[in-house]
Specification:
Elements (H helix, E strand, L loop, with lengths): L9 E5 L7 H13 L5 E7 H7 L3 H15 L6 E7 L13 E5 L10 H10 L5 E3 L8 E3 L1 H29 L5 E5 L9 H13 L4 E5 L16 H22 L6 E4 L9 H8 L4 E4 L3 H13 L1 H16 L1 H5 L16 H5 L3 H8 L10 H8 L2 H7 L1 H9 L1 H21 L6 H9 L1
Parallel strand pairs: 1-2, 1-10, 2-3, 3-4, 4-7, 7-8, 8-9, 9-10
Antiparallel strand pairs: 5-6
Bound molecules: zinc ion (ZN).
């Protein structure tokens, strides 16, 4: 399969909930270019997020276009309709050129017996031991496994095909990037399952350029990886090798690469991700981390900014069940670790930011507090102008945090293989 619009080797998905930080985010990609790597920016926003904020995809497009113009960015950039399906794709058709087709809800729904039979017959030769390139561990597929994987995923991939064809009919072939995502589900997919899923995606004729499996371990929003980092390392190497093999065998687009969702702040596995993807490339989705930098910037500014940050926390705390519900598979909040709003109300700017800023070595860092604020953006959305005016008033301090966070903590370790500089992590302690 050939694709017209191509996503580069390294790309970074950025979220900009209130459409105020696109320039600061793009500046991180400019820094990447200066450091010798092209980091292609992809502004992503899901239907869920647009609904919570009360925004439209055209606003994401306008903010991205304006940032590109302001900074004179001449490399590609994209707007991603994040986690869409057949019922939510429509509103994104005019503004987006990247589509993350989410099939998680369809996993486990049964495809027709005929299509499972046909799939198992046509791909019978996949059964056996596969020795993939650059990994010592082989992948083993039994005929039973081929069938059971088809039974579990075929319907979902057929569903992705319907969504893909709907977008293609509206946008024209080769005019957009297609991703298939399966991350927001309960069970991780093994490298063998990924390989079988890619066979099904090729059968559906989806020219997929990025694929987002669910990996082992927890990829919670805005906090570090929770799980067996050694197992993750083995798995991601196998996943990358399985993708390379599937590209050759099934004729999928040559630049097909992994997409890592909820990819921000996974400091303990960034070295493994860099090592596994330095040849193949990777799409790192970091949505949400920018919004937290906005809150950190406001709190740091003190005065009205700090007061507003505390008010957002108090409201988020009061509505925590409602706010956390839609994100249940991607957050782990320990209610006992959440400070009471009255306690937080007495905090200094330094106390607030050191609880919120992701410095794993700081004793003040509170991952439950951070995750609750991560999903608490609805509170700020309800504040409307009051929130946005404070963003404008404190633009300089916020923009600096946004750029530094993306470049130093994400682009540098994942794309350049440079650990986050300790100066950044120490920043929180010395303030
Ligand atoms: Zn996702």
């Amino acid at each position: 399969m050939t694709t017209a619009v191509e996503l580069g080797k390294f790309s970074i998905g950025v979220g900009d909930r209130f459409a105020h930080q696109a320039k600061a985010q793009l500046r991180a990609c400019v820094l990447a270019a200066q450091a010798g790597v092209d980091a292609i920016p992809v502004w992503n926003k899901s239907n869920r997020e647009h609904n919570i904020i009360g925004s439209e995809p055209s606003s994401t497009r306008a903010a991205a276009d304006a940032a590109v113009k302001a900074l004179g960015w001449t490399k590609p950039y994209f707007c991603d309709a994040d986690h869409i399906n057949l019922t939510t794709a429509d509103r994104f058709l005019s503004s987006c050129d990247f589509y993350t087709i989410d099939v998680a809800d369809a996993i486990g729904k049964p495809a027709s017996a005929t299509s499972i039979d046909t799939f198992a017959r046509q791909h019978a030769s996949l059964a056996g031991k596969l020795q993939l390139e650059n990994v010592s561990e082989p992948i083993e597929i039994t005929p039973e496994m081929l069938r059971s994987t088809a039974a579990k995923f075929l319907f979902a991939v057929q569903d992705a095909g319907k969504v893909y064809r709907k977008i293609e009919a509206a946008k024209g072939k080769g005019n957009f990037i297609a991703e298939v995502s399966m991350d927001e589900t309960d069970a991780a997919q093994t490298p063998a399952e990924l390989l079988i899923i890619l066979a099904a995606i090729a059968d559906e004729g989806i020219p997929v350029q990025t694929i987002a499996p669910k990996f082992t371990g927890r990829f919670n929003k805005g906090v570090d990886y929770v799980g067996d980092a050694g197992q993750f390392r083995r798995e991601i190497h196998l996943d990358v090798a399985a993708i390379a093999w599937a590209v050759r065998r099934f004729g999928l687009p040559k630049n097909l690469k992994l997409s890592i969702h909820s990819g921000s702040d996974k400091f303990s596995i960034y070295a493994a991700i860099h090592e596994a993807t330095r040849q193949s490339g990777v799409h790192l989705k970091t949505a949400g981390t920018t919004w937290l930098e906005e809150i950190i910037g406001l709190a740091e500014a003190g005065g009205d900014g700090l007061a507003l940050a505390k008010e957002i926390y108090a409201e988020a705390y009061a509505h925590r069940d409602e706010l956390c519900g839609p994100y249940a598979t991607v957050i782990d909040i320990d209610p006992a670790q959440l400070p009471s709003p009255s306690a937080a109300a007495g905090w200094t700017a330094q106390q607030f930011t050191s609880a919120l800023r992701h410095d794993p070595r700081s004793p003040a860092y509170n991952s439950s507090f951070r995750q609750l604020l991560h999903v608490g953006f609805k509170v700020a959305a309800k504040m409307g102008r009051r929130y946005l005016d404070l963003l404008d008033a404190n633009e300089a301090v916020i923009a600096k945090s946004v750029t530094e966070n993306l470049f130093d903590r994400h682009i540098a370790p994942v794309f350049l293989g440079k650990p986050a500089p300790s100066a950044i992590l120490e920043h929180a302690e010395t303030k």
